[in-house]
Design brief:
single chain, Rossmann fold, alpha/beta
Length: about 150
């Protein structure tokens, strides 16, 4: 059994209300339930967290990262500037899957660079809230590869 941290950054608490043409009508609570259910199919536990504050996200990673096997993170607008989040993830030594509901590569130029992506095992962008489920699948595959070796 693996522990996956599900971390969402600024404004993701407004899913379901915020720009539904980009992000859909699914709420963050809906996403957390769906991710927890998908992870349980693989025998994994999920600990979800959302904050609009970078330091709170770092604190969460520092507090729970040592016990975790993987992280699914949508850092929101901190994707491009969250070096302290990246450092916390690297210090935790966990597998990271980065998720974005919209396709950040097809949006404004400033959204296209991620400080996390070069260190993640994968990035899923533009597949809506279901990208979180694909992230669970991807991490589960990575965990399985590690146990097969």
């Amino acid at each position: 059994m693996a522990l996956i941290l599900l971390i969402n950054g600024p404004n993701l608490n407004n899913l379901g209300n915020r720009a539904p043409e980009l992000y859909g009508s699914t709420t963050l609570a809906d996403v957390e339930v769906a991710v927890t259910e998908r992870a349980s199919e693989f025998g994994h536990d999920v600990r979800a967290f959302q904050s609009n504050h970078e330091g709170a996200i770092v604190d969460f990673i520092q507090e729970h990262g040592a016990a975790a096997d993987g992280v699914i993170i949508n850092a929101g607008a901190l994707t491009q500037v969250g070096y302290s989040i990246l450092d916390a993830l690297l210090d935790a030594g966990v597998k990271v899957m980065e998720v974005h509901i919209s396709n950040i590569h097809a949006r404004e130029e400033f959204r296209r660079k991620s400080v996390i992506a070069p260190y993640a095992v994968g990035q899923i962008a533009g597949l809506g809230w279901r990208g979180y489920l694909y992230a669970v699948d991807g991490l589960s595959h990575v965990f399985a590869l590690e146990t097969d070796n």
